[in-house]
Amino acid sequence: MVETEQYLVPVDDYLKVGLHIGTKFRTKAMSPFIYKVRNDGLSVLNVQKLNERLEVAAKLLSYYKPEEIVIVCRRENGWTAIEMFSKFTGIKTFAGRYPPGILTNTNLDKFIETKLILVGDPFPDKNIVDDAARVGIPVIALCDTNNELANVDLVVPCNNKGKKSLGLVFWILAREYLKLRGVIKDYSEFTGKLEDFSPD
To answer: What are the residues whose beta carbons fall under 8 Å from the beta carbon of 178, sequence distance 6 or more?
Structure first.
């Protein structure tokens, strides 16, 4: 077992919110991240890989200024989490429906130039994933065991459906982003509370 210090949060925090619990459906693309299948048929994600990918995602995000990143989450369970993420980081988010064409159609009033996209789930957020691929913008995606990975550049394996698990992911990413960009020196300076990212 890897020492807890090498994890972004104690392993128990991941387990408590079910961040490692996948679905009964498994795609071939996600099989490298699956640790085992439970007796009830639910897949269990490898917590170490999940943690490693969260670290990579945070590092990748930190290479960009807030105005160069867009986060999209169509699934309602992630809306509070991404709104809080935006509040702390200044990164633009779209909770709910992504306005079509804002990455690709320069004639639109809402057209935005961005350098990196993060999506809560590449299936419901397929439109922005496809648009990003069309214009060559890299995509980080939170992916469950049932996701296909077309046009996804960085997979973060996790339970991307639960309110608590999405809250924890975005709380971690907000904290790491601010630390890696030098906005805060250490975690004690991060004022975001986990319960605000995933309220009951």
So the answer is: 88, 89, 184, 190
